[in-house]
Amino acid sequence: MESSEMQRLYDAMEHRLKLVKTGFRRYLYPKIDWRDHLICIKGARGTGKTTLLLQRYLEAFKGNRGGGALYVSADDLWFSKHSLKDVADYLCSHGVGHLFIDEVHHAEDWQRMIKNIVDEYGELDVVYSGSSLLKLERGRSDLSRRQAVYDLRGMSFREFLEFEGVASFHALPLEELLANHREIALELTSKVKVLPHFAKYLKCGFYPFYKSVHGMYESRLNEIANQVLESDLPAVEDVSPATIRKIKRMLMVLAGSCPQLPKMNSLYAELETTRAQGLKMLDILERAALLQQLKSEKATLKDLSRPDKIYPDNPNMMHALTTRADVGTMRGTFFLNQLRGAGHDVKYPPRGDFKVDGRWLFEVGGAGKGFSQIADEPDSYVVNDDVEIGFGSKIPLWLFGFLY
Question: CATH fold of 3-151, please?
Answer without folding.
Answer: Rossmann fold (3.40.50)
